[in-house]
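Field: COMPLEX_INPUT
Field: COMPONENT_COUNT = two
Field: RESIDUE_TOTAL = 646
Field: MODE = joint
Values follow.
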Amino acid sequence: MVAFVLRRLALLVVALLVSSFVIFAGLQLAPGDPLAALSGGRSLPPEALEALRAQYRLDDPFLVQYGNWLVHAVQGDLGQSIAQRHDVATIIGERIGVTAQLVALAAVIILVAGVGLGVLAGLRRGPVDAAVLVVTTLLAAIPSFVAAIVLMSVFAVQLGWFPAVGAGDGFADRLHHLVLPAIALAASALAIVARVTRASVREELEREHVETAVSRGLPRRLVLRRHVLRNAAIPIATVSGITILSLIALSAVVERAFGINGLGATLVQAAAAKDLALVQGISLVLVAAFVVGNTLVDLVYAVLDPRVTVGSRAA
Amino acid sequence: MSAPLLEVADLAVTLPVEGERRTVLHDVSLAIGPGEALGLVGESGSGKSMTARAVARLLPGGAAVTGSIRFDGTDVTALRGGELRAYRRSVAMVFQDPRAHVNPVRRIGDFLTEGLRLRGVARAEAARRAVAALADVGIPDGERRLRQYPHELSGGLLQRVMIAAALLAEPRLVLADEPTTALDVTTQSEVMAIIDELRRERGLALLFITHDLDLAAAVCDRIAVMYAGAIVEERAAAVLHDDPLHPYSAALAAARPAVDRTLPRLAAVRGRLVSAFEAPAGCAFAPRCAHAQDRCAAELPPLRPLDGGAVRCARAEELRGRLAPQEVAGG
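Field: COMPLEX_OUTPUT
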């Protein structure tokens, strides 16, 4: 187990290095001159351009630029936002909280409602199962921006139960503001998790070892908890992990729709403004969150399934 | 025989398959006394496992059961809820494939002590008993095994664990469904010896399901032979192999190669086994039987007493003594 964890951590570092390089290289290749954004379309005198290039070190060779960027990034210095004339790390620090809360709330909704509905449908054949299938098919088919608009018009505008825009201040107000965005963000992932949960529960119910448990005279609730749900938790954890991590990127859409000033919305703005350093910084943070989250999912998987570590199957 | 511990009478089972009801058992009657071992022998698909599952109340959903199954005087087919669970605890099942029948993500210790903990035995005491039970089935380092997972044990060891788990339940009847079929040959005999020894030691009744007539004869007091969902012969184990009354028993006995001579070709029961649902109106074995006559195809005779056993063959009296194994050998 210790060797397994160490191996996963080594892979984590490699993944972070590779993704940082891809982010940096990708944005260097992207069209557009960062200085054009700064000049606001005006043509600057060549001396001024020269001075700015030197200030932002835009003339260094590519690998030197990447090396500088990486060394500073590791120390928490992600450079200066050209458009906002602000520390990138400071901007990220201000925006990351609300995005993390949004994704966390969506994750709770997915785990509670998705797994709950899936278990219910898996155990109860008939109308309950059919209803869950219809609802999840519908949810899976709705993109998050459509879900956002529908939720906003029904629950915020018509019924007035929730605010339509903004993130709110303080815990209760923040929660109140984030309920609709979190539901919009969670909807399709919830449907996938519910479907996988239903299928895994069905599959485990048919397993021979469950028959053994029944043949021993175990009460049904213990059979379900220790042998059906415990074993079904392995695929459920994998799928929940991946779908929840994918919300990190999806959050940009929902943040824009609900006017929440989070990382995703800032990323979209920065990209539109060709604010290179900010796009790189936010991308790095989002990718790092995904890679670290993925490693956590792998570790949870190893805890749930004792067969994983022994076979040394790290993948 | 004293009052039987398990008494199955006129058991018939149908299962829903693709919208129609298919008969899997149509006439099974058997009895096992306390401490007695009954072998249930037949080819795959003859209904052996279904009989055990009916007794253990493990038939798939939608199964329709008629006839009676009585355990210690109680009607098993009518049990519900807590009574059913209590009954299941007094009947232990040893399954064919231990790899599939032991939960792969829980430790051996959990598997062994689960039933004991349910009955209110303290954790430490349950672990102590589990280690003792492992020692009984020939696993000396029980303490270490309790912490292991099923995938860390070989098939033979895992089957011993399953037997230990069955014994820990302190059952009165053990249902063993081909317990050695999934194991390699040397492990088979070891596991079989353990089952036989522990059963005799503890005076447990045993329903031993196998396709191996000789193996059943070695460990059982009596043997019942099944064909197409019905019992065709039931005799004392000592006489069935050498003096079968039913042509199918004779064919089964002949189909096992002797270890002391070389045959140019292995004997087999000719023709194909039919399942209960596709069996013809008369004797289901008639199409494969060397002794079949027209009347065999017309009507299925009942199981009737003969020579201290019971047989279901219209010509049993005529054929008596003529069904020695070598006579029907060949293919």
